[in-house]
Amino acid sequence: METSLPFCLPWLAGKTAAAELKDRPESSFPLARRYADEMIAHAREEAPNECCGILAGPANEGRVKKLYRGINAEKSPVRYNIDPQQLLSIHEETEAKGWAILGIYHSHTHTEASPSATDVRLAFWPDSIYLIISLKQPGEPVIRAFSIRDGQIEEKQVAIGG
Amino acid sequence: MAVEVRLPMILQKVAGGAKTVKVEGKSIREVFDNLEKNHPGFASRLFDNEGNLNHFIMVYVNNEDIRLQRGMQTELKDGDVITLLPAMAGGEDCCR
Q: Are A132 and A108 in contact (CB under 8 A)?
């Protein structure tokens, strides 16, 4: 379904101006290397459009057990919006497993791996971590992770493991 | 006639922390009207200033997107399950 992103939800309106990005990560987001590699591969395959997807796993463990490649309904180099029907399917599957949506990832193909004003305005999943893959330096992709709650941004260190 | 409405985390606080609520209604419109009566505050989160369903709220009836059905006029039957999910969206720039 073709969609556009001209609006924001009212309970987050006006929050963006207050957004602050702290200089130093205060906690970490554990991620197996295979998932980091998969996100980068996904970003490269979708370029110049943005890729998007979901990382899920048991909430009590906080460990990613599955990566879902999202379908970007926007098919855009500057926007992403996970296909609504796919989003529901993934949500239902994770609920059935007793999992949580631990991370939501997307790529920035030409800018830094930092949340844009749009990313903050549309961050409607406050309990998930937002991961951004930057392909600004194509040979040196960067992944950074952020908590975004009520317009407040807090970086998490991406702890790559085995 | 009651249906079950499953709420995302971001809307659960309006319902006092409940993950699901039972609501009366024969259409999505009636269900949302009753949601607002039972839990004031829903309408301002679900609709824009012109009364249209917010673009970033996904509404599904028995796993079917209402935007692919009759939207707010989608008819319901007893026991239907309505799921509300916020969009997962963003990007480098949406408004230039």
A: yes
